[in-house]
Amino acid sequence: MPKQTLAVLPEMFSIHSLDCDSSIPAAVLQSPLFFLGKTEEELSIVVPSSVEVEAMDSDDDWRALELLGPLHLSMVGIMADIGGVLAAAKVSIFVLSTFETDFFLVKDNKLNDAINALKAGGYSVRES
Questions:
Q1: Is the sign of the CA dihedral 105, 111, 117, 121 positive or negative?
Q2: Measured on CA atoms in the order 30, 106, 4, 80, is the torsion positive or negative?
Q3: What is the value of pTM for the model shown?
């Protein structure tokens, strides 16, 4: 029996780093999918690459694997197991979480390696 199911999102994503005092661009807030993180040192924005963001630094060519949920906050070890499977396959990840699910971003050139490793690890992967 397979473990959880992940779905490959069709769009490419970019990770942006802005000054901590920067405003969130309106285009980001209008995007159907975005993630924000803020510390005393920076504002990080993850958004589809089609959204223009003026940033201090950016990293492009990320693909997202959405862990299909909803997942309950009391569930233990899912992120660690998936992270371990991908680490064993030498696939770097950038992880984002919402209240109900997790997203594993992998570089586009490692997407097939990630999919193959996850399937070998007992996960189901839906490709678009």
A1: positive
A2: negative
A3: 0.91
